[in-house]
Amino acid sequence: METTTGPLGQGLTNAVGMALAEKILAAEFNRPDFDIVNHYSYAFLGDGCLMEGISHEACSLAGTLGLGKLICFYDDNGISIDGHVEAWFSDDTPKRFEAYGWHVVPNVNGHDPVAIESAIEAAKQASGKPSMICCKTVIGMGSPNKAGTHEVHGAALGDAEVAASRPHIGWNHLPFEIPQEIYDMWDSHTKGKKLEAEWTQKLDEYTKKYPSEATEFKRRMAGELPANWHEHVDKLISRVNEKEETIASRKASQNAIEGLASVLPELVGGSADLAGSNLTLWSGSKGISRETGGNYIYYGVREFGMSAIMNGLSLHGGIIPYGATFLMFSEYARNALRMAALMKIRNLFVFTHDSIGLGEDGPTHQPVEQTATLRYIPNMDVWRPCDSVESTVAWARAIERKDGPSVLIFSRQTLPFQKRNAAVIKLIDKGGYILSEAADGKPQAIIIATGSEIGLAMNAQTALAETGIQVRVVSMPCTSLFDRQDVAYRDSVLLKGVKRVAVEAGIADYWHKYVGLEGAVVGMTTFGESAPASDLFKHFGFTIENVVKTVKSII
Fold this sequence. Notes:
Structural class: alpha/beta
Number of strands: 19
Largest sheet: 6 strands, parallel
Radius of gyration: 27 Å
Shape: globular
Low-confidence stretches: none
Mean pLDDT: 97
Helix content: 40-55%
Distance between the termini: 57 Å
Oligomer: single chain
């Protein structure tokens, strides 16, 4: 398995996710006579990784869940970029990890392969605990003048020191010349082929004895959806449309999970201590514990750790992870979301309580700029659905997307159902579509909205029509998906020469890319306030009267 690290602590946390995936899949697919899922996850980390707060989030949870197949190597060289770390990092790391419930092997000579091998074997014997092997090393060992200094932490040795290091370590070979005996020592082709052949034979025997389990295992590890997936999704969307429920989109999200998870056993959920608010549990949720597998992870208050663990789960394969918190707390998790987008992995980040609509909790909890800045992450699809149908479509398309992660953003408050026919429902897949056309088909203006503001836009359309002004309402639940459509489609939705008003209870600046200099935005330009949601929407101009006034001002 491969991951992209760089930001310190995330590789370690990805490894926690990989070890957790092994635990989940082993519990589901292994049988007493076949351990078809049975591997260790190894991670290397340094002082900087342990200084990053995410290491606490991930390693605390790993200890609680008893991830005994996780073995970590701490490169304890006492150096970071600024120099010797004792001035800013004086933790007793072995005791820290013992407190987490880990098996710890302290004071291992990190330059002695025999000592390291012995520590690995001891770690494997501690099957109920993750292991931390603390390796004492000298950074830059072999460099006669720079070993043990921060000068070799983030910079090349330089020609002079390279030349001095060669005789110092007895290396007389040219650059990139690997002596055959060393190459042979490291060459694992033969060993790897043998191990792969043994596992393939085991899988063949497993397939003969447990054919249905083997078929499911192979499908999931290949990243393929069930054969009946698209038929099931289409029927679910039709049922949701027929119900015409006026509910909070977070409740619509929970209903979508309920409707999809029953045919998608690889869907593994979780929440950062907000399951009752995010509504991420469904009737088949089974909490994962030290003793058992399952399909739901209680992450505790660990938003960053949760998100990077999810990346590890996805990278491992066989699992489609989703995890939730309040949209405001996506800020804690932001870098892991960026890494998911960079790695192009399938991952579903669920964020509820999406605007000033959450009310009295006030500006510390009311998202303003978060939705827009998430949209700015390359390769991240951000969905902000307006009702139960769009919420179900968002879930289905996020699950189907193989080349990148998706953010699903939902409201706390109830949102009105929007009527659509089957043809219009299919257009949701395009990210933006005509929800309600001008009565005469010749709009004088276009209102673009998302999420909770769609109902407002529809009411404003009616009010404007009463004054003789015909407008089109465009729902744009996923701007990046709309942007990927061809020019002809985009121009058919956002007609050239027709002025536009965007309405969203988020930062206004984002929408100028769609309305242009001649259009207008009804949005936020400040932080929120503490008051009931209805009062806040009125205070910040999210009213029929203000939208009507804004449309009239541009035509």
